[in-house]
């Protein structure tokens, strides 16, 4: 298990959450300034300096329940309120989308390019808000500093850690089912076509060498797929073409679900002008989420305008011992007595988030 996995898991799931919420705000015709405020509030919390300092510390992954609690808090960092069914659906879409991206990464190292695609989109959400943009840029620098020096083996360990985390999650998603990249049992269908990973060759050739290192024999075999030559490597810098499309917004018309492992250079170049109109293939999934959320209302309390998703969200504090400890820390943070241990994994981060 890799102790460097948590920041990538958090940023990629957060990116997927923002894609979904952005589309719902647009679909409900919320005024642009109010939708922007909702997005800015969530992103400000997501990239809070102290919060990220805790997140980037080497540590094991949180349990599924602890991580879910983090995203419950994050989704309610603005004045949105989701009921339990709404949050369940939102979290299912987030996790299955990122699981699919991890599975389709040509190389383990390309998980970082997927992360950068999410970061690029997040930067675009806050491009007109310099204070929030600077927080996102600082996280970008941290990602580059922490992950670009890692070896292929270390990235493989990160990928394995993510897949172990996701291995029991087989939630069916309409957009994946329609594109035939997910079976009815919730398991994904991996492609046997498309570009091969950077630094590799199309399978189909076995070369044999002598003890002196001289090639003495070649054997060809049918690879059973329809592979094409490798694309150029995506940029691992703060600015640049990622080439790979995994991690871009699958809910927009110009960005259908990825069914190969990498996009073309032409498609990558078009990423800057992504059409934000909802993808018809994603319509059913988003409509289900909309029905769970209910209609959005614009309310005007005395001191500020607000956008409210009609249902109130609540936590079941007694659901399990771990969640009870986390919630205990929340009340302790507010100055109330608490009998739970503050050293439980994820508690410090969650308590900090609750106080933001």
UniProtKB/TrEMBL annotation:
Q: Which InterPro entries match?
A: OSCP1
Q: What is the lineage of its organism?
A: Eukaryota, Metazoa, Chordata, Craniata, Vertebrata
Could you name the domain of life of the organism this protein comes from? Eukaryota
**Gene that produces this protein:** OSCP1
Mark out the compositionally biased spans (Polar residues): 261-278
Coiled-coil segments on the chain, per record: none
Q: Could you give one GO CC term from the UniProt record?
A: cytoplasm
Q: What is this protein called?
A: Organic solute carrier partner 1
Q: Where is this region: Disordered?
A: 259-278
Annotated transmembrane regions: none
What Pfam families does this protein's entry cite? Answer: Oscp1
